[in-house]
Amino acid sequence: SITAVDQVPGLRLWPASGFGFLKAIYDPVAGAALDAAMGTVVDMLVVAPNKDFPSEFTIGSQSGDGFFGVAVKDVAGQNLILNDGLAHCATEKIGMLVLPELCATEDFEATICGALSSGDSDDGWPAMVVGGSRHMADGDRRVNRLSVVYRSPRRRRTVHHDQAVDEVETIHHDKVARFILGPPEVPTPQGPALNTAGEENIHRSNTIRIHAGAQWSMIPLICADFLDRDVVQAVATLHPRLVIVSAMSQKTSGFVLSADTVIAACQSTVAIANGPAQWTAPEGTAESSDVAVFVLPLEDPADGTVRIRIRPAPDAEAPYRVR
Questions:
Q1: How far is CA 235 from CA 32, 105, 241, in A?
Q2: Kindly report the CA angle at 47 between 43 and 52, in degrees rounded to 5?
Q3: Which of 18, 105, 116, 293 is deepest in the core (most CB within 10 A)?
Q4: How far apart are the first and last CA of the chain?
Q5: Which has the closest alpha carbon to 307: 259, 266, 262?
Q6: Angle at 118 (CA atoms; ends 154, 246), nearest 5 degrees
């Protein structure tokens, strides 16, 4: 089966030990949906739904084993922002909507699927959404899950109204890399020890997926994934045309270094959607962060890196849009 090409002896994408714990999925079904969604250029809207971390997010649980359950406080307001972003894409005919890490609510995926399956024509907008991510339970596993939703090239008719609607393809990516909030080690009476209390307490995936089309290919990742050496090396080996990263980070310089590695290997275009727009510094002041970073395969790195930083006025309200 072509979907198991990395499992066929002699046709593996790399030796089993080549990238440590990682497994690659070569997904031509997602690739066909990607091809149908994309035109000849990348047309993307990045929406930063949130202004700052301490006032707009909550952490469900914190213990010696780490933290879990980061979520936006105003679920209804966040859902309105998503709908506003979807409507803006429809009005402006923007093909791709991308959102940052941990900005999704429980309703996001259903809302996106509903929006992308509606419409009376084959040229609906947006054609695809990389819908942020959220902490959630999957059976007895706790994951940080990203949803990628495509408006499928297939059509179907509703039973009751004989109306043609778009089908959708939904593909998930669960976070792979280890993330620690704060220093990697903390002092103890016995000496330095791992900062387990600062670790994101999730069941980490060991899978990355290349959405492998005939014209386009893409790998979606979550934040720290694109700072992990094995992940970055694997992405560079798989040669995607696009790398989309949903991030939640005060600093983005590490992402740019990873992008440089991938671009040097295969001339990818890398886009990072980051949020929130502001973080609280140790002294208690608000500091702005990049809400979007685009790293392009241009000869001069200075021309190839575009950083978008928003410095909101005290009374300014999210969402912040970048096209």
A1: 20, 28, 10
A2: 155
A3: 116
A4: 39
A5: 259
A6: 85
Residue with tokens 């959630």, as numbered in its chain: 136
Residue at 266: amino acid letter: C
**Looking up tokens 């694109």, which residue turns up?**
226
